[in-house]
């Protein structure tokens, strides 16, 4: 039998329920895997093995109780959270030096929900600082490596989350997605990553990057696990005024290997210039596979796509410039010790605490909101956002689903994209989805240059079920999701 | 809580107002719609001003670097000016939610030790900061 | 001839709302807790937290808007105002920028007997900041500053008047009226001294008759009604003098120095403010339901103007009395409570406006803190009517009631203050006084009216004020006349 850390949530759930394994045993396998590979992958910022052991005991007790039923499939499953999710008593750094010592006195809703489900947290995962980046190279501490090629990036910003799942250090992880930050690393690392509809999952406790775009979602080994984790974290939260009062279905009920009659649109703008030919080949094959499963695939158009990226960078950075103003050295986090007046203290604390990309985005966002430029940049971007949303609305009048590559290329090498703009272009297929607040999933669909390629599916608001159905049908007809990285160098 | 018509609510933004005799903020909306001189380059002085507003102390090298990088990003953003958005409403919220309230009930505050536990410096029950100039 | 100027003044009033919990979290709004004990992750602005709007804050804002004759917005939203200050945990304030909840209203003041309408430009909701405690004399001389976040997130209304005020007195009357209205609505305590009310003024002057506006200054830190009037008066004169000297007024923010009685320029290292307002992404907008507005309008209590009119109509008291009595809801309630127990409203008004307010002011107390109950005051007035005590003794009794809260009958009894109406007893004292003051009696006889008053006073003195004044007058006159 495979080591327990290599299994899926649903496989482990069966073993746990039948009493063949205990949460402690699964945890032991995960912890020894972490010990074995973490020095290569560097997916974690913080490990919490003691806490995890305690939680494993509690999960054991819970599973032994007669009340434990099929409604708690995450009980006893080791997982980890991206380090921008607040966990009471456990360092939450956002991979930033400015929060290198921040211990939240409260749990975010996502942490609470996983605890209520008796999932076991083994640690907090690396990321681009404050989720700003597409490679995890912007971590204020160290980059995470792609388990498929340790010389390449895992994608970002939830690079630690994707890498930890791909490297079999944990069974699942949570990430956050503001402009593709779950889907891109999922694609780069060959795992499943879902960004739910804006408002589907509470953001309470998620350290804000761009409040109107941020969403939390699962990174898992397969689509079934994705549905199970989404079941646990979705739902209205009175502590998040932007969380939607929309009922949560049991997402596993959508997992049917059937796409008959499903109308699928392929936006031609997502296959435009800049798409790596090798990726294009893989993607075309995936489209054909969908057709074979019964889907009716047609090319369509989202005409304002080229405007999405600049609009995104203006909106996201504007919100970020305000969201990140609170890191000033007064209440928590780093404080410069060389200043003897408050303004100098603010200026130096922030100069010392933030990395280059974060500073760049704060500056851009401040500029976009500043007097004289607000209308030309920020307001203009909000109007373009309306146009992007309308593009999708029109497309969904015709199609149940839109599909595209998750990224125009496979994972790149460390240092390959030094120009910020070149890096931003990696997110060209994922960003419009955030602007429109839609659900999007990335699933493994093959390899190019030996690296995983992700297939993105985009759905109507709150149609995660449809996404999961299509993703499941596709996944069950392929075995891309069963491929394992070797943790070597290509 | 009230969900109103459809999924995308478009947040209306009012016109500039004059507040108690305050002058309206200067904003170049006309320029934006005409699209001509809008995406002007950002100068080094502007970068310094933006850094001041952002409370970021920059080195000389950073000022150079950010001036160049922000210019290239803004140049890229200039394609937005191609779009005529004069008839388009801005969208600040993607969800059609409105009137999300909590009831006026007192709940638990944090234990003071937890409030202050992350403070870089504290004095008795207070956060301590350097002098305000 | 010197130019005659008039001032153009607009007031921005910030007042804390009397909600139980803060505007975006469930921490209490109560005053006086130990530092940093009324805070939670939300009002402390910790990473990851989100605001959720207190419904009652919106209700209070709508109530204020209705009472001030405003339109209630159909659509309103919150915005962020970005600036760095250590009392602001997020380094932005959640406020309302271009779509406030209420706009376009007015209130009426009475200037020299004439009604004058003062426009209300807008009312909006926002969160309060924390408190900075400085070690040392002044902010800038302190070595360090201590920060207490208990007040952060306490709901505020900002009420902005139109620049319709022309004198410092009008400004004070406006503020007093505003205070009365908010107090009637029971949404704000409006205590300037505790900081639950803050008032800033925009002021400029122009030659009378001109319609152009002069350069304005903004005045802050006026912490009482008196300070407001003094500061504005000072500033008007400063503007006039500046122009008379051929100088220009600088557009700036100034602070009122109460001790020195001057306004001072706040020339801090002020970078040009750029608050970078933008819509608060964490709070969905408000679509104000008309049924809710109608419901709140129904619940609106009687407001000062209406109550004043009713007092004049129902109690037959003068305009002036009605205005004073209705200035404060509590005072008006008190007055009406006495009116339920005693049949002469004008006499009650005299006592409430006279002795009661005098005693309250002397002690610096609010009407709700008064120990004299309406029942006691009514009982005392009845004792006067019955002749048990004289008007003079009544003042003594009142002071005692005010001090101790005891009922008047008991005070009269215990202090032995019952009016002496025994004619024989008083006659004896009258005889005595006449005998010992022959010169005064002579003066009176020769037509010096004052002399009679002296004799009455002597009798009252000997009876410790308890003699019935009517009786004393009669007996004195009879005796002196019989001497002739």
Structure description:
The complex is a heterotrimer of chains A (490), B (133) and C (484). Chain A is an alpha/beta fold and 490 residues long. Chain A has a domain at 4-262 and 439-482: Amidase signature (AS) domain (Amidase signature (AS) enzymes, Alpha-Beta Complex), CATH 3.90.1300. Chain A is built from 15 helices and eleven strands. In chain A, β2, α4 (109-116) and β3 form a beta-alpha-beta unit. The longest helix of chain A has 24 residues, at 375-398. Chain A is globular. Chain A starts with 8 loop residues before the first helix and ends in a 14-residue tail after the last helix. The mean pLDDT of chain A is 96. By secondary structure, chain B is α+β, with helices and mostly antiparallel strands. Chain B has one domain (2-102): Histone, subunit A (Orthogonal Bundle). Helix content of chain B is 29%, strand content 10%. Chain B has a two-stranded antiparallel ribbon with strand order 1-2. A two-stranded antiparallel sheet of chain B has the order 4-5. In chain B, β4 and β5 form a beta hairpin. Chain B is flat and about 55 Å long. The relative contact order of chain B is 0.18. Chain C has 484 residues and is of the alpha+beta class. Chain C folds into three domains: 5-294, no CATH class; 301-414, no CATH class; 423-483, Arc Repressor Mutant, subunit A (Orthogonal Bundle). In chain C, 40% of the residues lie in helices and 19% in strands. Chain C has helices at 55-67, 168-185, 225-244, 290-298, 304-315, 319-326, 329-339, 345-363, 374-385, 391-404, 408-414, 423-436, 438-445, 449-462, 469-483, and strands at 5-16, 53-54, 71-72, 75-76, 79-82, 92-95, 102-111, 114-127, 131-134, 144-148, 155-161, 197-207, 217-220, 253-257, 262-265, 278-279, 286-287. In chain C, the strands form four sheets. In chain C, strands 3-7-8-11-1-12-13-14-15 form a nine-stranded mixed β-sheet. Chain C has a three-stranded antiparallel β-sheet with strand order 6-5-16, with no helix packed on it. Chain C has a two-stranded antiparallel ribbon with strand order 4-17. The longest helix of chain C has 20 residues, at 225-244. Classes of the chains: A alpha/beta (490), B alpha+beta (133), C alpha+beta (484).
């Amino acid at each position: 039998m495979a080591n327990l850390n290599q299994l899926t949530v649903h496989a482990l759930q069966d073993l746990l329920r039948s009493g063949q394994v205990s949460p402690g045993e699964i945890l032991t396998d995960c912890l020894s895997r972490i010990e074995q590979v973490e020095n290569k992958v560097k997916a974690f910022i913080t490990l919490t093995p003691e806490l995890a052991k305690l939680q494993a005991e509690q999960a054991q007790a819970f599973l032994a109780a007669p009340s434990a039923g099929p409604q708690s499939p995450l009980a006893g499953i080791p997982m980890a959270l991206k380090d921008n999710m607040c966990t009471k008593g456990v360092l939450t750094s956002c991979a930033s030096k400015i929060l290198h010592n921040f211990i939240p006195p409260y749990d975010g809703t996502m942490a609470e929900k996983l605890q209520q489900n008796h999932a076991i947290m083994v640690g907090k995962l690396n990321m681009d600082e404050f989720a700003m980046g597409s490679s995890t190279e912007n971590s204020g501490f160290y980059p995470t490596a792609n388990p498929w090629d340790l010389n390449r990036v895992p994608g970002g910003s939830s690079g630690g989350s994707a890498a930890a799942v791909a490297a079999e250090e944990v069974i699942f992880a949570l990430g956050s997605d503001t402009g593709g930050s779950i889907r891109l690393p999922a694609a780069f690392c060959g795992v499943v990553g879902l960004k739910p509809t804006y408002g589907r999952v509470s953001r309470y406790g998620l350290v804000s990057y761009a409040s109107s775009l941020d969403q939390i979602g699962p990174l898992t080994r397969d689509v079934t696990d994705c549905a199970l984790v989404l079941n646990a974290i979705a739902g209205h939260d009175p502590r998040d005024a932007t969380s939607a009062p929309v009922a949560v279905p049991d997402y596993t009920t959508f997992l049917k290997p059937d796409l008959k009659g499903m109308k699928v649109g392929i936006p031609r703008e997502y296959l435009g210039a800049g798409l790596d030919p090798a990726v294009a080949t893989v993607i075309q094959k995936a489209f054909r596979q969908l057709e074979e499963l019964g889907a009716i695939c047609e090319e369509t158009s989202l005409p304002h796509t080229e405007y999405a990226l600049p609009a995104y960078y203006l909106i996201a950075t504007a919100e970020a410039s305000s969201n990140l103003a609170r890191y000033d050295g007064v209440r928590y986090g780093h404080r410069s010790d060389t200043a003897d007046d408050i303004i100098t203290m603010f200026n130096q604390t922030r100069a010392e605490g933030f990395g280059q990309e974060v500073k760049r985005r704060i500056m851009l966002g401040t500029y976009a909101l500043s007097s004289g430029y607000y209308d030309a940049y920020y307001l203009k971007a909000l109007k373009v956002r309306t146009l992007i949303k309308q593009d999708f609305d029109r497309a969904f009048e015709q199609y149940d689903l839109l599909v595209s590559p998750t990224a125009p290329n496979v994972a790149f090498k460390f240092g390959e994209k030094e120009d910020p703009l070149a890096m931003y272009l990696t997110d060209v297929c994922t960003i419009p989805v955030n602007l429109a607040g839609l659900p999007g999933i990335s699933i493994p669909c093959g390899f190019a240059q030996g690296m995983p390629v992700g297939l993105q599916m985009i759905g109507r608001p709150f149609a995660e079920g449809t996404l999961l159905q299509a993703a499941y049908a596709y996944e069950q007809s392929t075995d891309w999701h069963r491929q394992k990285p070797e943790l070597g160098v290509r | 809580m009230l969900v109103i018509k459809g999924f995308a609510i478009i947040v209306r933004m009012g016109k500039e107002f004059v507040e108690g005799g305050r002058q309206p903020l200067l904003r170049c909306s006309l320029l934006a719609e005409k699209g001509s001189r809008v995406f002007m380059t950002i100068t080094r002085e502007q970068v310094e001003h933006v850094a001041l507003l952002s409370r970021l102390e920059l080195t000389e090298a950073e000022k150079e670097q950010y001036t160049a990088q922000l210019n290239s990003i803004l140049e890229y953003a200039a394609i937005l000016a191609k779009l005529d958005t004069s008839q388009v409403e801005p969208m600040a919220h993607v969800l059609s939610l409105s009137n999300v309230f909590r009831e006026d009930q007192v709940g638990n505050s944090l234990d003071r030790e937890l409030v202050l536990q992350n403070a870089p410096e504290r004095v008795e029950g207070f956060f301590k900061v350097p002098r305000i100039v | 001839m010197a130019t005659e100027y008039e001032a153009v003044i607009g007031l921005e009033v910030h007042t804390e709302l009397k909600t139980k919990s803060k505007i975006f979290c469930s921490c209490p709004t109560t005053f006086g807790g130990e530092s940093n004990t009324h805070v939670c992750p939300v009002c402390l602005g910790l990473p990851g937290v989100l605001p959720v709007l207190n419904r009652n804050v919106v209700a209070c804002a709508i109530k204020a808007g209705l009472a001030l004759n405003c339109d209630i917005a159909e659509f309103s939203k919150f915005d962020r105002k970005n600036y760095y200050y250590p009392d602001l945990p997020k380094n932005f304030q959640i406020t309302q920028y271009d779509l406030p909840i209420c706009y376009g209203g007015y209130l009426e003041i009475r200037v020299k007997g004439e009604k004058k309408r003062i426009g209300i430009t807008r009312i909006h909701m926002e969160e309060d900041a924390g408190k900075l405690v400085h070690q040392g004399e002044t902010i800038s001389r302190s070595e360090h500053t201590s920060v207490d976040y208990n007040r952060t997130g306490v709901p505020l209304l900002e009420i902005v008047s139109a620049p319709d005020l022309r004198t410092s007195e009008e400004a004070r009357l406006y503020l007093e009226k505003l205070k009365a209205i908010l107090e009637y609505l029971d949404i704000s305590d409006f205590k300037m001294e505790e900081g639950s009310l803050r008032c800033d003024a925009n002021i400029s002057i122009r030659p009378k008759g001109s319609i152009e506006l002069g350069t304005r200054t903004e005045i802050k830190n006026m912490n009482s009604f008196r300070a407001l009037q003094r500061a504005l008066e000072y500033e008007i004169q400063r503007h006039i003098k500046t122009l008379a000297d051929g100088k220009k007024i600088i557009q700036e923010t100034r602070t009122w120095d109460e001790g020195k009685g001057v306004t001072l320029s706040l020339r801090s290292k002020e970078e040009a403010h750029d608050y970078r307002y933008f819509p608060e992404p964490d709070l969905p907008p408000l679509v104000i339901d008309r049924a809710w507005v109608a419901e709140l309008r129904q619940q609106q209590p009687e407001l000062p103007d209406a109550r004043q009119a009713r007092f004049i109509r129902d109690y037959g008291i003068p305009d002036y009395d009605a205005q004073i009595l209705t200035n404060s809801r509590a005072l008006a309630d008190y007055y009406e409570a006495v009116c339920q127990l005693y049949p002469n409203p004008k006499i009650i008004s005299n006592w409430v406006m006279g002795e009661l307010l005098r005693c309250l002011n002397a002690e610096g107390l609010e009407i709700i803190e008064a120990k004299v109950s309406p029942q006691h005051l009514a009982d005392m007035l009845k004792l006067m009517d019955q002749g048990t005590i004289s008007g003079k003794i009544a003042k003594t009794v009142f002071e005692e009631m005010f001090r101790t809260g005891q009922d008047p009958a008991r005070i009269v009894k215990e202090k032995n203050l019952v009016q002496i109406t025994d004619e024989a007893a008083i006659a004896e004292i009258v005889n005595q006084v006449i005998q010992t003051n022959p010169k005064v009696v002579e003066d009176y006889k020769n037509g010096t009216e004052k002399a009679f008053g002296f004799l009455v006073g002597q009798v009252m003195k000997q009876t410790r004020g308890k003699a019935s004044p009517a009786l004393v007058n009669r007996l004195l006159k009879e005796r002196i006349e019989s001497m002739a």
